[in-house]
């Protein structure tokens, strides 16, 4: 698992944002934790006929029917089977809850704004239009994902 | 931003005020010179507060209209103006205009309302005292008045979070009378008054500090406890600040501080009502649903581990609370139907005035509650129906007088609950609808052929008005026309899961009956399986279920490369759900002839319909019927044509709800326009022929399913095994003041024995004057099933026949036979009693017939269901009657005509092809020689109206089909059976 690299001194230097991070296809992504309601194990997904390819189906989230979208599909990667590590990150998006399927969940990070660098045009061949920045950790980089925009566009 | 919000709140509040104003004005009009001060004050204050807030928000036009309106109301209140139709008309127009302005509040300032204001002002002219107000002043006054409004509700500022506390402060003399008034006039009065406040609170918050104290001062006078009159004289309140605005400023804010203490005690007049967003309720509903799931899981786990009975009671407590919780939450969505009805007073008044008619509207059942969503959606269709009744139903006074009716027509709106639904009747005493004219028109429009028209009964003909394309151009008046036909009304009502029907009597009037479900949030649905997934289909879309066995596979045919099902003489297009939903590729699914040989044992076809559309949906399995809670789908799934929503099933999984229309479109199903109406007529006939029997399904040994007709079930009891006592070989349930003999199916039929269990269900019947209970291990359901029971395959005593229900061979029990087998002694007694009754009934004139069995003692039985025909015939013959049976009314009529003297009594089913029981009855009654023949109508399900219709046609008595004892007793009242007569003869 990853560890946070920041020191207390650094966090004082500028406002920090807290990221929920997760892996998709061995890349570490982070989203602002403010939009995340909860993270679930995925069970009992009901497939929806004629739905867009990025939609995995719908689940029952405590009585509410929540659409689950596959982050892999949204990012233009290949779909894969749902495995035991897979998690559903439930996001508030336009008055609605949407489940985002990720490969594996990682830590929560607090990252100072000043330590976020602008993203490259693409990362590992993935289109970078929904990337809002990168933050470098000891073990690699975490990509800040604009999940709202991503859900909006699809 | 804040302004927009303020205006929004203002509009909401104003709408509520104005909504009531109309009814109140109409009441004021009705009372004429006998002015009800409270009522006028209520209206006055409503308009006053609209005016005040409008002035504050800079809505000048709203303000102007409200101002002139208020002045007129002031005169009425001061008894200087007597309300009459003319000036109330102007006032109603003003209320309408205000409402109109609310609808487009953003552009309201660009409207021109001078004409209306002049009209209003003109009402003031006679003996109007010279007013000193200059045109510029009102705006200023208004601002102050708003301030008054705000200041007299100081509690709002103190206790923002508790809306409940917003009951009328005792020190608020302006508001209080209104609250009282509403408490008597409305069911939920406090809601309206309470909701007014948040809106009023906002302006206060925006006020400058300089203004605020001034406002408080003005309220001080009216709020003073020494003030004897409870109602503020508005002119005084308005004038005071003009006269002395400056000195008012330093006045103490005492009233504001004093108010909270009084506000804390709710006055009894204000029922504690609170406004809650529908979202919150939906959320609550969801959570209650989840609780139900958790409960079910708990029950399942407990079922696996056989635990002590202690837990059982806890769980059943939880069970009950959960159910009640869900019901209570459902109730929060309910609103009285009066909310819609109240507006019709105005509709009828205006419309009859316009058409030169007189029409009185009577409303009953205002308090009947129905889901908020339905209230909103039913308003337009109902309005259309009401307008139609006034326009086309009620005649003009001259015509009415000529017809010997009172000049004023009566229109009745009546809402009531019936079997879990709400029925709304719209009854007029107008000229009725001439079926012959409708038929003619339908022919000329090509909707009917001449033969169809000929064959069509009156009732059916009247229903033609709901047929698409029936409303004709020349009939469209500016009143009922409006480009909407009755077919649209019907389809809108059907969209809500309701039905609409019409009955008419030429010269007497027309009754339109609208039936609505209580709620939209819960939809009775059928759960089906397609592939690995389950889907819900709303019951309202389902016409019937068809099961095609392998040996019947020739009923599925290919026409133009499309599959169709031969169903009672018509061809029904089929849609394969799996293919349509893309669960399998079309080419992977073998064509019907190929797989019919190899794979399928039974094929489930659900005949669905929506409007004119009707087709068969081929599904993998039919699972269950369930009341589902509809949940919306997220925005990513807006483009799924086959789906209309989702629901959560008992196991917590999501199931999608199928949209019957969308599925048809997706599968490119096209309705053939030409044979559409013909097919509809055919289907209609077919459906009417299909008799449904309501049965109770239960199990004895868990693998065997039984059914009993609901008509014979007196009640169902749940008993613990300790309560059952054995006396000799007879088991008894000690019960109330006596004991109930219990029967076990395994002792009387070839049923497997019922396992031992702590609790049993006892199905109680009454037979031969005794009550008897049948023990059942579990109850399954109450179902409507086709009355086609297979009486040949399975032979057993007390078993009428078999049918496959839910894939279970189900035996329909003959309860009387059961009882007879268990307690033959009862029936010996009955037989004796029968002889006695008959002996008393044999009249001198009937006696000669005893000698001649062939003449006059026969029972004529008309019944289309061969199952029932056999049953009824059998038990009548067993009781000594000669029975001639016919398959429908036409055959019955011909038989009766052929040998008119042969029959003593006629038994007829109601729903039959070719000629139904009602028509059969009418024909019989139309001939003098049959005037006295008793006609007993047999029914399995009937409403009060059905009964009435039967009696109107000439039916002597109604009897339940399978209630043998009652039926025989009834026949014996009217006829002397041969066997019994012989017995009687031999006795004497």
From TrEMBL, chain A:
Residue span, CheW-like domain: 16-154
Biological processes annotated in GO: chemotaxis; signal transduction
GO cellular component terms, A-Z: cytosol
Signal peptide: none
Entry superkingdom: Bacteria
Protein name per its UniProtKB record: Chemotaxis protein CheW
Organism: Rubripirellula obstinata
Lineage, broadest ranks: Bacteria, Pseudomonadati, Planctomycetota, Planctomycetia, Pirellulales
UniProtKB/TrEMBL annotation, chain B:
EC category: transferase
Record's compositionally biased regions (Low complexity): 215-231, 254-272
Occurrences of domain CheW-like (ranges): 522-669, 692-824
InterPro entries on file: Bact_Chemotaxis_CheA, CheA-like_dim, CheA-like_homodim_sf, CheW-like_dom_sf, CheW-lke_dom, CheY-like_superfamily, HATPase_C_sf, HATPase_dom
Histidine kinase domain span: 310-520
Catalytic activity entry: ATP + protein L-histidine = ADP + protein N-phospho-L-histidine
Positions of modified residues (4-aspartylphosphate): 909
This protein's record includes keyword Phosphoprotein: yes
Region (Disordered): 156-231, 247-272
GO biological process, one term: chemotaxis
Record-listed E.C. numbers: 2.7.13.3
Domain named Response regulatory: residues: 858-976
Modified residues (Phosphohistidine): 48
Keyword vocabulary terms for this entry: Kinase, Phosphoprotein, Transferase
Record GO cellular component, one term: cytoplasm
Protein's name in the database: histidine kinase
Provenance organism: Rubripirellula obstinata
Gene field: cheA_1
